[in-house]
Prior knowledge:
Elements: H1 12-15, H2 20-28, H3 34-38, E1 44-46, H4 54-60, E2 64-77, E3 83-89, E4 94-99, H5 104-109, E5 115-125, E6 128-132, E7 135-138, E8 150-152, H6 161-172, H7 183-189, H8 194-202, H9 210-217, H10 222-247, H11 259-266, H12 274-287, E9 294-299, H13 305-318, E10 322-326, H14 330-343, E11 351-354, H15 360-372, E12 375-378, E13 392-397, H16 405-412, E14 419-424, H17 430-436, E15 441-445, E16 455-461, H18 465-477, E17 481-485, H19 493-510, E18 516-519, H20 525-536, E19 542-545, E20 558-563, H21 571-578, E21 588-594, H22 600-611, H23 615-626, H24 628-632, H25 634-637, H26 651-667, H27 669-680
Helix pairs in contact: 8-10, 10-26, 10-27, 11-13, 12-13, 22-23, 26-27
The structure holds adenosine-5'-diphosphate and magnesium ion (MG).
Amino acid sequence: MLAHGDKVGSDKKTARKTSSNLREKLKRLHLTRREDLLLHLPLRYEDETRLTPIDEAIRQSAGSVQVEGDISDCRIQLRPRRQLVAQLADASGALTLRFIHFYPNLQATLSPGNRVRCVGEIRQGFFGPEMVHPRCRVVLPDTPLPEALTPVYPTTAGLAQSALSKLIAGALAGPPLAETLDADTLARLRLPTLQAAIHLLHRPPAGADAEILEALSTRRHPAWRRVKLDELLAQQISLRQAYRARRGIGAPRLPAAGRLAEKLIARLPFALTAAQVRAVAEIGADLAQPYPMQRLLQGDVGAGKTLVAALVACQVIEAGWQVAFMAPTEILAEQHYLKLAEWFSTLEIEIAWLTGSQKGKQKQAQQAAARTAGLVVGTHALIQEGVNYERLGLVIIDEQHRFGVQQRLALRQKGGAPHQLMMSATPIPRTLAMSYCADLDVSELDELPPGRTPIRTRLARDGRRDEVMAYVRKRVAAGRQVYWVCPLIEESETLQLQTALETHAWLTDALPDLNIGLVHGRLKSAEKQAVMAAFVAGELDLLVATTVIEVGVDVPNASLMVIEHAERFGLSQLHQLRGRVGRGAHESACILLYADPLSQLARARLKIIFEQTDGFEIARQDLHLRGPGEFIGSRQSGMPLLRYADLELDVDLVETARTLAETLLIQTPEQADLHRERWLGGREELLKA
Length: 689
Ligand code: ADP
Ligand code: MG
């Protein structure tokens, strides 16, 4: 039995047996403390509380049953393939036990004469009724049946269910887990204590009625809800604490004077949207605080986030501090650089430009400029070694979902604790935002600038290419420009490049009177720049591109996009790509070419992108299709993912956890710490990145 807080396997009795091997496996399941074992809950249950006579079990022949009998024969057969075959009989009948995969010790278990209990499904084999790979154990006659259902735990290769069960049973026998919620709260929420919930989930009573079993297996039972609430609460506490800790760190106060921003607004050919005005004000107010801002600016593709960024940059620069503006691709960074240089051209702001492709003298000169420039624009070269800022006040990260945690960390280490503004066009559905992003403040651009015409989306089978070409010609004749997006080939960059070259070749062939350019990730940056500049200037009619144009690219005269093999792209990628058109006043269209046969998932995605234009709705449905793990990209975000709570089913619990976390942190902070440690101990370093 393990004492509270003990490491698994560190008490004397089990120390010898618990090889480092076992500990390694437990660690893989994140089971290092007693609490971890208690919170490692069953996937499902098997009913071993009853024995079924073999003849009855054969007649029933549905679902898993438990039988008990004596082994009369056991041998290894070599044909048709090596397998272990044993005969089991009780007073009522007999059946065959068959194992295609087995360890040598199984032969000992199934020695003739042994009495054995087997759990499995019976099927009619060629030689009569049989169980394939039943769970077997030797018993003495009259060994009592268990009184509870048998839990089946998630495990890992080489760690037997029985070994894991035994460890968990040991943990359950220990002292109860301290309760972190008070009785009033539990009564109000109609939830059991944690101890009661955990016991019930590990050991549901035998003979529990069907309704209870159903609630347990669908995880709607109050015991499950208690566990899920606990898990969500730990997450909320952790994020809230990170949020508060930040308030203890000093950051420069950068109050708004507004002179530069006014000048910028005065030279724009359009008025700000109400949403932009609101976002600028929210961010501006944060910048005037003496602790570092961490705010997410969300807005659908084309909502005008860059301008918001430019306006808040004005506030920082005016206060005498520097702004670093980081974009995930060189093409996008360059676009921002050009746009901002144009917007700021009469404001006397020094702008530096940094990318990874700069070398030698040029690089040195740019790095020197970055030291003091008011605004530094670039790719993640901005956070590389050798780049230093004298007075970094604000970091803006565009398309932040494209950056990993490590990069965000590196950036923070560059200059004390600058304010941070993250921008994203991949909207985070509300429940995700409430849970995973609870430590961020969020501003939202919930309207597009006026005068945009909606993008018409068309789906076309690959075979209808001729019609598509005719349409392209028509658009170009009307003075518009076209993007042609090459198929995505995730497995191989070389193949992807080859496809891009081929696509460019046949389009040049098929449309000889058009000026056609090509841009892909392998081009030198000067080449990329030249192609993009030609497209922006209208010298190219059609731009063949890989997904390097996925984010941010802004050419208002481009009003048609063709995406080849659209079925290979993810939903947010399609939405981002499509967002490259519909940026001007011209009617825009997006043609999604696809090849049959479509997988069910691909069909579902294409249907969504065809029917929806609203990024939030698309994200919501994407979440539904993929589940939150993939959606948020656990590896990329570094977030420990939720094990039990389901952000779609348990929205009400997310809400409850939020308010509860606040209360707990104020009223009983030690309880909050205890609670967080219990669930996240050792797993949350990256959570605060
Ligand atoms: P995103 O939010 O996708 O980053 P951008 O910042 O690239 O969007 O803006 C899309 C386009 O809309 C740009 O051409 C930009 O200049 C323009 N734009 C931004 N704000 C407004 C506005 N208030 N009215 C009209 N056009 C605007
Ligand atoms: Mg953008």
